[in-house]
Design goal:
Elements lengths: L13 H8 L7 H27 L4 H26 L7 H14 L4 H14 L14 E2 H6 L2 H11 L1 H15 L10 H23 L3 H27 L14 H6 L9 H6 L6 H6 L8 H7 L11 H4 L7 E3 L4 E3 L9
Parallel strand pairs: 1-2
Antiparallel strand pairs: 2-3
Length: 341
């Protein structure tokens, strides 16, 4: 049985599937508040313990071990921030905005700036003609071959795993997020300024209490480890074997939703820390579904179960997929390139 363009394997159109998922888009205050409780309190407790280990001269390796767990919790906090950007964590948009700003300060990310770029990402996902905002820089094979040598070098460096997941987190969260984009509206600029001032105030307060050295010994590894995890999760959501991309006029909306985003199946503990965001294909079908409903959607809706899950082991293949080949309609490696005829 063949699938008609614009439908899934069950014969639903994207609009029909979105309608099926609509009932899961209602916020649940009890689940939302419980997530705040089970995440922010352990995060604060780990911070207190890490401060004590530094002040009492325990091995820094003990501090770093706790920093790994704190970083995983910070990734979970970023998922709350992400839901707030979609207005889905709480029913109240004011509550979403408040939590968005608070979690944005903790993750060194401006709420309005990131929300704007992320909503553009949702509108342009899988669109070869509208790349460049809120996504991972991806060139086609022909674009790469015709690019000047310096641009090809820059692209190779950008796609190098040691640069992307080594230097990348430090650049994105410590530097890039400190500045407004060119042409940003007043609200976005104000959000960046407010976030920077709040971070600055925390640093001053920490310097006057626990000490700047202690703050940096804790904050930097937590931020950088969380940044690596976060960037990897974002990368693997749209850079994987079998991903769907197409030119704007030929995009199939159902394929964009179900094949343009991955289902990254993780162990239960890691799925908890990453706020179910591995079920990314569901998120792209209906972005207003809060993270605490995504697994329920997968368990109850047959249409979203047709997506082939990607394991942690298989996901490592994505590191070698650097260019989009429009002829074969797939991501390919630099090594697969052959001299143009």
């Amino acid at each position: 049985m063949t699938t008609q363009p614009g439908t899934d394997r069950t014969g639903l159109t994207l609009q029909e599937l979105q309608h099926v998922l609509a009932r899961y888009g209602t916020s649940d205050p009890k689940k939302a508040l419980w997530q705040l409780f089970d995440t922010f309190i352990p995060y604060l407790a780990l911070w207190i313990l890490m401060v004590l280990t530094v002040h009492h001269g325990y091995s820094y390796w003990i501090t770093l071990a706790m920093a790994v767990v704190a970083a995983a919790l910070l990734v979970r906090i970023f998922i709350f921030f992400h839901d707030c950007c979609h207005g889905s964590f709480f029913a109240s948009q004011r509550a979403n905005r408040v939590l968005g700003y608070v979690s944005g300060i903790l993750t060194f990310t401006s709420f309005e700036k990131w929300r704007r770029s992320h909503l553009v990402h949702h509108a342009t996902a899988g669109d070869l003609d509208r790349r460049g905002v809120g996504d991972v820089w991806t060139m086609t094979v022909e674009e790469y071959r015709s690019a000047p040598a310096l641009r090809r070098l820059a692209y190779r460096l950008y796609r190098n795993p040691f640069v992307m997941f080594g230097l990348g987190p430090a650049y994105v969260f410590l530097i890039e997020q400190r500045f407004s984009r060119k042409g940003a509206e007043r609200g976005e600029r104000a959000s960046v300024l407010f976030t920077n001032l709040a971070i600055g105030a925390i640093i001053v307060a920490a310097s006057m209490t626990i000490g700047l050295r202690t703050y940096l010994l804790i904050q930097l590894p937590v931020m950088l480890i969380a940044g690596v995890i976060g960037l990897w999760m974002f990368y693997i959501q749209h850079q994987f074997e079998g991903v769907y991309w197409a030119r704007h006029d030929f995009r199939d909306p159902m394929k964009v939703a179900l094949a343009g985003s991955s289902y990254y199946r993780l162990p239960t503990v890691l799925q908890w820390f990453t706020g179910n965001i591995g079920l990314h294909h569901i998120h792209h079908i209906r972005p207003r579904i809060p993270n605490y409903h995504l697994q329920q959607v997968y368990d109850e809706v047959q249409a979203v179960q047709s997506v082939q899950p990607m394991s942690m082991r298989n996901s490592l293949k994505s590191l070698r997929m650097n260019l989009w080949d429009e002829n074969s309609q797939q991501l390919v490696s630099f090594g697969s390139l052959r001299p143009a005829a």
